[in-house]
Amino acid sequence: MATLHTRSAARLMIAPSVLLLLAWMIVPLAMTIYFSLLRYNLLMPGMEEFAGLSNYIYFVTDPAFFQAVFNTLAIVLGVLFITVIGGIALALLLDQPMFGQGIVRILVIAPFLIMPTVAALVWKNMFMNPVNGLFAWLAKLVGLQPFDFLANAPLFSIILIVAWQWLPFATLILLTALQSLDEEQKEAAQMDGAGAWSRFFYLVLPHLSRAITVVILIQTIFLLSVFAEILVTTNGGPGTQSTNLTFLVYAQALLQFDVGGASAGGIIAVILANIVAFFLMRMIGKTLEA
Amino acid sequence: MGSITLKNVSKVFGSHAVIPSIDLDIHHGEFVVFVGPSGCGKSTLLRLIAGLEDVSDGEIVIDGKNATELPPAKRGLSMVFQSYALYPHMSVRSNIAFPLKMAGEDKAVIDKKVADAARVLNLTDYLDRKPRQLSGGQRQRVAIGRAIVRQPEAFLFDEPLSNLDAALRVNMRLEISQLHQQLKTTMIYVTHDQVEAMTMADKIVVLNRGRIEQVGSPLELYHKPDNLFVAGFIGSPKMNFISGAPAAAYQAHTIGIRPEHLTLSKDQGTWRGTVGVAEHLGSDTFLHVKADTIGTLTARVSGDFGVTHGDQVYLTPDVQRLHKFDEKGLAIR
Predict the structure, then answer these.
(1) Residue A201 DSSP label
(2) Are A79 and A166 a contacting pair, CB within 8 Å?
(3) What pTM did the predictor assign?
């Protein structure tokens, strides 16, 4: 309904923030692309020279590269799998009326408020440690050999830790969605002879589909760049078994001081994230439109 | 067949008895309306019959079998909810088919029954739409369709017309009455609107604070209300109540006279009064008359009775149709 005048005024008003956001995005991206085309090593300052695409070739032919791509996707998919299914289960449980509901709900959110480094260190030292950890104690209690999680199943351990951190987020979103389900619909299904499982499958799950989509989209954004949990637990190892793309870029830049190669890795990570986003939107974006 | 009997049924929430104790017989094929002001327990009573709430005490017998402990689906009842409670992600077809699918019916049988129901309710063209693409009246019909495909012993309606606009409400009222004529199934209908109750019911159950005030046919309630509450609740506009000296003249604590049973005259009558507000409906005019000794009375006169604000009129009650009540509010017959 806006007149021509108010519309141009509106454009003028939002121009500063648009420009600021654009600069915020474009400047780092342009600099990264520029660095990625240079031979730029921090150990040899002042010797930068144009290197073409050799940084990219070097990064992609690194034997750790495909392992890192695989690990990145494994972390994203693994954590999504655990948090979505676990989140639905927890939300269903928390939706039941019970004593101390308010306190229990706050407790459930707690892991989300803990810093990733702290959470990972707690898991590493108090749970997964093969000598002093709780899991080792449990294993010994039933007469089993303690399992060294971080050494023998590093990727799985990291998925576990990250999933633990993101479970509250999924639970919270799904719980609020669950609570918005019309009570009369549930009663109607009950009258129609639907048992608990049918009600879940035909009524609750379709109702949750939009919330599940939101959980998957938001979590994917953050899970593509998991870093702190890897740094403080396995340091990407053993070997490169738990190195994801973010960690590989970090290692290139700050362990090998190769800014050029790391920048190339960064650009590749951006491209990969866009590919993932493209498929994600194609697959589940539809549920958001309805 | 669809007979329902409530024996001594009560419902208590915490320490608050919503329904102290109710006995009620509903015969096969009856159209029974529960009516009462909001919070009178009528919806709770319906939900008790449906099995969506557990009774605190007493027995519900459906079709001769004790159904008190049966889950809702096993009682052979279907319900139409106030919000319609359609499944938003399913097409109209799947919505109507849902109870049959849950009952594990054959695909061919389901298709046939859904098609039949859709034909009865004029929904055939809308079967592939989603509920959100339908108008209020169509949604209402889908909800009814979902209820009739199961061929239940009885239908339960929980204020089904309250979300519709006035014109549509009149239409749907007719359609539901026609459906009852066609199916001849027991129907229990909850409403707070006494017009709906009067127009649709075979039998009206007037509820107030969880108690049954009176059970009877619409005309019985209109002509012979048992007490002040029923007298005041049934009939529109409301019955006029007069207490004190004018009532004592008729050997009663309170007398009630319906607006349509007051005769108006410009020069003579029992009570004298001044016209306050005149509501012209065309065919009728409702006059709010401030009578000198008794307070404001509502009177119904024909549309061409020419009086306006401030005019003096005389009111004469039709003594044959005067309702007398004692101190406890019970009718004196």
Answers:
(1) I
(2) yes
(3) 0.80
* Closest partner CB to B52 (pick from A187, A195, A207): A187
* Interface check B198 vs A, CB under 8 A: no
Distance from the first to the final alpha carbon of chain A? 25
Q: What is the pLDDT along chain A (290 residues), one digit of tens a residue?
A: 567 788 888 889 999 999 999 999 999 999 999 999 988 888 888 888 888 888 899 888 888 899 999 999 999 999 999 999 999 999 999 888 888 888 888 888 888 888 999 999 999 999 988 888 899 899 888 988 888 888 888 999 999 999 999 999 999 999 999 988 888 898 898 888 888 888 899 999 999 988 998 899 889 989 998 999 999 998 887 888 889 889 998 988 888 888 888 999 999 999 988 888 888 888 776 666 65
Instruction: State the CATH architecture for B238-325.
Output: Beta Barrel (2.40)
Query: Who among B81, B83, B102 is closest to A194 (CB)?
Result: B102
Q: Specify whether the CB–CB gap between B136 and B162 falls below 8 A.
A: no
Which residue of B lies nearest to A287 if distances are taken between CA atoms? B89
- Rounded to the nearest angstrom, the minimum Cα separation between A290 and chain B is 10
CATH 3.40.50.300 in chain B, residues? 4-231
Please tell me if residue B157 touches chain A, with a CB cutoff of 8 Å.
no
Q: Are residues B143 and B84 in contact, defined by beta-carbon separation less than 8 angstroms?
A: yes
Nearest to B314 by CA among B285, B284, B293, B283: B293
The shortest C-alpha distance from A174 to chain B (Å) reads: 18
Classify residue A97 by its DSSP letter: -
Class of domain B4-231: alpha beta
Cβ distance A194 to B146 less than 8 Å, yes or no, reads no
Whether B259 contacts chain A with CB within 8 A: no
Handedness of CA A254, A255, A261, A265 (dihedral sign): negative
Does ipTM top 0.95? no
Residues 281-300 of B with CB under 8 A from A: none
Which residues, including other chains, have CB under 8 Å from residue B91's CB and lie 6 or more apart? B127, B128, B129, B130
Q: Which of A182, A191, A202, A212 to mutate to test the interface with B (most CBs of B within 10 A)?
A: A191
Rg of chain A on CA atoms, in Å: 24
